[in-house]
Amino acid sequence: MQLSALGKKLTARTGIVELMDDLGSALNENPDMIFMGGGNPARLPSLEEAFKKQLQAVAGDAERLHSMVGIYQSPLGDLDFRSYIAAYLTKKYGWELSAKNIAVANGGQSAFFALYNMFAGPTEDGTHRTIHLPLAPEYIGYRDLGMADDIFSATRPVIDKIGDTRFKYRVDFNHLKAVENVAALAVSRPTNPTGNVLTNEEVAKISGMALERDVPLILDGAYGLPFPNIIFSEAEAFWNDNTILVLSLSKLGLPGVRTGIIVGSEQLVEAYANFNTIASLACGGTGPAMTKDWFRTGEIDTLTSRHVAPFYRERSLTVQALIKEELKGLPFRMHLSEGAIFLWMWFEDMPISAQQLYERLKKRSVLVVPGQNFFVGLEDDWHHQHECIRLSYAQDQKTIRQGIKILAEEVSVVYSEC
Ligand code: PLP
Question: With contact defined as beta carbons under 8 Å apart, do 373 and 143 qualify?
Fold first, then answer.
């Protein structure tokens, strides 16, 4: 194959490709694998029941079925869905929104591909501008999204060690203030991979910096507010006309419908729609058709607050307790678990790299994600990135218990070998 330079870049075996490969083979081809790798959400029976009901209602109504599968949606996506989302957010938070502020995407990932490339890279005046991540580590899926090279830059966090087994990253605002040639500031809240949730003050401050620089703040709410609401700390939803909030139906339990939602200014939403039409022609209708009633009625809040948030909160606590028990006496720290579906572990001064630990665990049929993949946009080879791994706690508890036992055994061997 004679590929173009861009073709080579976009077909390379990158971290996210390896991660999704592991995920695909673990979930589809090798079910004995202990899967604590990718970001697949948990199976929640009450949510599955709700999905079934909605699908049956749509399938039983010829017009709704036709609208879901038989027509191309308009470039911005299903109008009812967009109107209900706008009304829901306006009622809940007082944000002044109409359907013109909402666009549908084929998953959050595809929204980020469009948004990051809309803003970052070489500009017409020859400056190279980046999507700046105020707090690395960040979502591995951003890493290879740029059609231009080097579209990310990032600020290293300040690390607060808490007690013997915890830590938390905080935004280093002094560094952030000094960065140059920024096209947009972007952050996931809760953060994948760490489970960190930026405080309300941190978000307000970052938003202020974005406004001062006249660049947008892109907030990735894949796990956040208002849905799926996998947040365990005190956090308020955030949006203003200079913010692009990207939501997704995936972590509710619907990654297969590939529905992302962009909340932005009318000008941004219109520009995005043109990009998306070129790239995708139109968005899928299944996610909007299945869920629009929940936004019209507010049922979405009941589903998330009764079934989604409590499940993950409890699971996080259980798995943290398991880790403390199994890894007792070993030199590890866990990032404070404030949201999302992962635990982020730090093995300070580990004698092998996180990549080597990942490979050793994979040989024993345990999948985790090595940390270095998440330090998107950091130029230097910070040793810390080779000391961390990400564990998902979304799969069933028995499997996770086994996985953590094996992790403890391997880590114990690794430290005893040195
Ligand atoms: N943002 C974050 C932080 C994620 O973890 C993910 C997926 O895992 C996405 C965005 C993209 O999700 P999707 O394309 O399924 O909406």
Answer: yes
pLDDT tens column, 338-377: 999 999 999 999 999 999 999 999 999 999 999 998 999 9
pLDDT the model gives residue 245? 98
243 within ligand 1 shell (Cβ under 6 A):
no
Q: Which of 139, 230, 252 to mutate to test the pocket of ligand 1 (most atoms within 8 A of CB)?
A: 139
What backbone torsions phi and psi does residue 152 show, to the nearest 5 degrees? Answer: -115, 145
For residue 51, give the nearest of 278, 290, 241 by alpha carbon: 290
Query: Which CATH number does 72-298 carry?
Result: 3.40.640.10
- Per-domain boundaries in the chain: 5-47+303-417, 72-298
Ligand 1, atom nearest to 251 Cα: 15
Is CATH 3.30.460.10 the right assignment for the domain spanning 5-47+303-417?
no
| pLDDT band at 170; cut points 50, 70, 90 | very high
SS3 content of the chain, % helix, strand, coil (to 5): 45, 15, 35
Q: What is the pLDDT of residues 33-77, one digit of tens each?
A: 888 887 889 999 999 999 999 999 999 999 999 999 999 998 899
Ligand 1 pocket member 372 (CB < 6 A): no
Q: Give the nearest ligand 1 atom to 191 CA.
A: 3
Ligand 1 near 138 CB (within 6 A): no
Q: What tens digit of pLDDT does each residue of 283-298 get? A: 999 999 999 999 999 9
Residues 6+ apart with CB under 8 A from 217: 184, 185, 186, 187, 206, 207, 210, 242, 243, 244
Q: Is 39 in the pocket of ligand 1 (CB under 6 A)?
A: yes
Is 108 touching ligand 1 by the criterion CB < 6 Å?
yes
Residue range 235-261: average pLDDT? 97
Does any ligand 1 atom lie closer than 6 A to the CB of residue 248?
A: yes
Cα(273) to centroid(ligand 1), Å: 20
